[in-house]
C-alpha cells in the first residue's frame, strides 16, 4: 500500500476506490484480516476464505452506492454478516471444530487441550440465539463497541447491551456445565 493511500481514512479511500484499483486494494489490505476473523468465527475457518472473497466482491460492486452516512467499517461488517448467513444457509451444518482458529500449538498435549476448548466454545456459541451470537461475536471477536454493533445490526443500543449481557451469561453457564471455568 502506498504511503499516500495508507494515510487516507476509510471514507476517503472508499470514494477513491470507486475508480482506482490501488485504493480498493488498500481497503482490502486494511480490512481483510478482520473480515476473515469474523467470517471464521461465524462460518468456520474452512469456509471463511470463500466468504471473504464474496464480501470484497460485494464491496467492490457496492462502493458506488456507499454514501458514507455510516462508517465504512459498519457497512463492511453488515456485508460480512450477510455473506456469512448466506454461506450458513447454503451449508446448513457448521462443523464446530472449524469455528475458531486455533493458536499455534506448543505441544501435542496443549494442542489437544486447545482443540477441546475450541470445540466446546464453538458449541457454546452455536447454542446462542442468532441475535445474541451476532452481538457477542461482533463485540468479542471483531472488537466493535456497542454503538458500532447497534449500527451494524440495526438494533437499539440498549438491545445490543442486553443481547451481549444475556449471551455472555448463557456462554458462561454453558461452559461451566461443560466443565470449563470461563
From TrEMBL:
Q: Which residues form the RNA polymerase sigma factor 70 region 4 type domain?
A: 119-171
Q: Where is the RNA polymerase sigma-70 region domain?
A: 27-92
Give the CDD domains listed for this entry.
Answer: Sigma70_r4
Name the Gene Ontology molecular function terms of this record: DNA binding; sigma factor activity
Q: Superkingdom of the source?
A: Bacteria
Gene3D superfamilies, A to Z: 1.10.1740.10, Winged helix-like DNA-binding domain superfamily/Winged helix DNA-binding domain
* SUPFAM superfamilies xrefs: Sigma2 domain of RNA polymerase sigma factors, Sigma3 and sigma4 domains of RNA polymerase sigma factors
InterPro entries to which the protein is assigned, alphabetical: RNA_pol_sigma-70-like, RNA_pol_sigma-70_dom, RNA_pol_sigma70_r2, RNA_pol_sigma70_r4_t2, RNA_pol_sigma_r2, RNA_pol_sigma_r3/r4-like, WH-like_DNA-bd_sf
Report the protein name in the record.
Answer: Sigma-70 family RNA polymerase sigma factor
A GO biological process held by the record? DNA-templated transcription initiation
The species this protein belongs to is Deinococcus cavernae
Keywords associated with the record: DNA-binding, Sigma factor, Transcription, Transcription regulation
UniProt similarity note: Belongs to the sigma-70 factor family. ECF subfamily.
Amino acid at each position: 500500500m502506498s504511503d499516500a493511500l495508507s494515510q487516507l481514512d476509510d471514507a476517503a479511500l472508499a470514494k477513491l476506490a470507486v475508480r482506482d484499483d490501488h485504493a480498493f486494494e488498500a481497503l482490502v489490505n486494511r480490512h481483510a484480516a478482520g473480515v476473515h476473523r469474523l467470517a471464521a468465527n461465524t462460518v468456520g475457518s474452512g469456509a471463511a476464505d470463500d466468504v471473504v472473497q464474496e464480501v470484497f466482491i460485494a464491496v467492490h460492486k457496492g462502493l458506488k452506492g456507499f454514501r458514507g452516512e455510516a462508517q465504512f467499517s459498519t457497512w463492511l461488517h453488515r456485508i460480512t454478516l450477510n455473506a456469512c448467513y448466506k454461506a450458513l444457509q447454503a451449508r446448513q451444518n457448521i462443523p464446530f471444530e472449524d469455528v475458531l482458529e486455533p493458536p499455534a500449538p506448543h505441544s501435542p498435549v496443549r494442542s489437544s487441550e486447545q482443540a477441546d476448548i475450541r470445540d466446546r466454545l464453538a458449541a457454546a456459541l452455536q447454542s446462542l440465539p442468532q441475535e445474541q451470537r451476532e452481538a457477542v461475536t461482533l463485540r468479542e471477536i471483531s472488537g466493535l463497541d456497542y454503538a458500532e454493533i447497534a449500527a451494524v445490526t440495526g438494533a437499539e443500543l440498549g438491545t445490543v447491551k442486553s443481547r451481549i449481557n444475556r449471551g455472555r451469561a448463557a456462554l458462561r453457564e454453558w461452559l461451566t456445565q461443560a466443565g470449563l471455568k470461563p
